[in-house]
Amino acid sequence: MAAAPSMNEISKLYEKARAALNVAKPKLDTIKAQLSQLKVSSVQLAMQSSQLETDPSFQLLKRGILELGAELSIKTGDIAAFERYLAQLEPYYFGSFKNKLSESKVMYPLIGLNLLRMLSDNLIADFHSALERIDLDQLQNNPFIVHPVKLEQALMEGSYKKVWQARSEVPTPEYLFFMDLLMSTIRNEVASCVEKSYTGLPFDDAKSVLFFSNLDELLSFSQEHKWTVSPSEKRITFPVVAEDTRMFHGDDIMKQTLAYARELERIV
After folding, report:
1. Portion of the chain with pLDDT greater than 90, in percent
2. Mean pLDDT across the stretch 70-86?
3. Residue 226, Ramachandran bin (φ over 0: left; ψ between -120 and 50: alpha; else beta)
């Protein structure tokens, strides 16, 4: 059996992969292969000496490899892998290694990303449980944590406009991945409300209500929802619900109309 690489060799490979990930256009497949090699090598090294498990230098290296994996997962859009890496980082961020190692520069950006993941997946209970483990000072002052906290408040208020504005206020571009997932969920909810309360909308109004920045995005979304598009009238028409499936009395219609009006007022 071949000897495991030394810690120095693993550290050099880690620095190489880290540098490769931080360039403008990283070669993700290459970094993914390097990450796999790093994980295997670190396990092989740990098997040769049980003392490494308490070695701060080795634990810093293991933490760095896990963080590299988490960051790579965001760039490749692998949410399941990101969640697994964050779970493995728990002992370093909140557990036994928290006070034994120097604080990681990417700890709070990754914790913030994980909070956004929870919001984008509507895991509100998990979100609040995660907040309880973060120091109050960080909750109030760390921009990587403050952003998802304010975002959750806007969601609870039903202020989708604030959520949309928060997209332009992300503390790091990596946050846009989960922000776009969240906005996609919001658009589908808004679309469901709008198509039940209106027969159709002009392009500009629909674009505004659904938080699209250009017409092409709106038209693509309309096609996905099987809405009728009239370029000449610059208008979208929504499918008509069969009358025999909706038997409303006058007071029911009034209540529903008022509910939709309030919902749209919150959205706009």
Report:
1. 76
2. 97
3. left
Start-to-end CA span in the chain (Å): 66
Residue 38 near residue 17, CB atoms below 8 Å: yes
Per-residue 3-state assignment (H helix, E strand, C coil) for 21-37: HCCCCCCHHHHHHHHHH
What gap in Å lies between CA 113 and CA 92, rounded to an integer? 16
Query: What are 81's two structure tokens?
Result: 């892998």
66: its two tokens? 């896990």
**What is the 8-class DSSP label of residue 54?**
G
Q: Which DSSP state fits 96? A: T
Helices 250-267, 175-197: inter-axial angle, 10-degree rounding: 150
Question: Is-contact 235 201, C-beta < 8 A?
Answer: yes
Strand order in the sheet with 200-202: 200-202, 235-237, 228-230
Q: Scan for tokens 């998990």, then name that residue.
A: 126
Strand partners, 228: 237
pLDDT digits (tens, 9 = 90+) for 184-223: 999 998 999 898 889 999 999 999 999 998 999 999 999 9
pTM across the whole model: 0.84
> Could you write out the three-class secondary structure of 185-246?
HHHHHHHHHHHHHCCEEEHHHHHHHCCCCCHHHHHHHHHHCCCEEECCCCEEECCCCCHHHC
pLDDT of residue 5: 86
- Compute the distance between CA of residue 184 and CA of residue 167 in angstroms, rounded to an integer: 12
Measure the CA–CA gap between 216 and 223, rounded to whole angstroms.
Answer: 11
Angle between helix 7-21 and helix 28-48 axes, rounded to 10 deg: 160
